[in-house]
């Protein structure tokens, strides 16, 4: 039996630390697609409930776009979707924080990077071919939609149980203000989905990566960066 050289014994734990994983690990992909289905249910049923007592006189959602035969039916779908959205969303936020994914992929965001990305976008030169790196606009969109997701749940709780959550409801002012905030959050999420899905379809390999996990990376870092880090140590 040959003995292991001391230098190799020393380097083994380091190699272990640099875990090889997919760009989008399986739990992330599962949570992403569960979220997409939950959002679809929430928006479709929310539109049915809205139609029953509209906020903006002229705005009604067509019957073929809504979920639920009657408002009460829409409400049941809405609560069903809510549990999936809240539990899955909480799991996604916990996963993103605990694994360091948010820190690695969504931070830091520098003003310089934002200006450069916006400048590139205005000249139609926005690059989206490096799947391992989110540009500043993507980072802001992803963080923004998470913040709006939290706000829509908070305003939804105040609408659902205004007596039990009266302190929360009071923060918004009137019941009608809570409805308006909830509606505007929905509108922002719909806007996000339109941009997000358009980009995913324009860069089909990003869509494929959200299905099959994408390239293997070191601890979520692009292979180049991870290798540079190992050399630097
Ligand atoms: C059917 C609709 C959807 C499609 C086709 C889709 C597709 C994708 C794709 C391809 C990515 C990877 C993007 C990239 O690597 O550049 C992604 C990431 C992401 N999507 Fe979606 N998505 C959908 C719905 C949604 C919805 C409804 C939300 C939230 C309201 C959402 C939030 C996110 C977030 C936060 C990420 C970043 C995940 C991370 O890297 O941690 N997506 N999506």
How does this model look, in words?
The chain is built from ten helices and two strands; from the N terminus they run αβααααααααβα. It has 233 residues and is an all-alpha fold. It has a two-stranded antiparallel ribbon. Helix 2 (26-52) packs antiparallel against helix 3. The longest helix is centred in the middle third of the chain and has 28 residues, at 71-98. The two termini are 31 Å apart. Bound molecules: protoporphyrin IX containing FE.
Observed structural traits:
233 residues; mainly alpha; 10 helices; 70% helix; globular; disordered N terminus
What can be said about this structure in brief?
The chain has 233 residues and is an all-alpha fold.
Number of helical elements:
10
Hetero groups bound? protoporphyrin IX containing FE
Proportion of helical residues? over 70%
Strand content: under 5%
Kindly state the mean pLDDT as a whole number? 88
Query: Which descriptor suits the 3D outline?
Result: globular
Outline the biggest β-sheet.
2 strands, antiparallel
Query: What sequence of helices (H) and strands (E) makes up the elements?
Result: HEHHHHHHHHEH
Radius of gyration: 22 Å
> Which sequence of strands runs across the widest sheet?
1-2
The rounded distance between the terminal residues' Cα atoms is 31 Å
Q: How does the helix and strand content classify structurally?
A: mainly alpha
- Number of beta-strand segments: 2
> Could you list the spans in which at least 5 consecutive residues all have pLDDT below 50?
1-15, 222-233
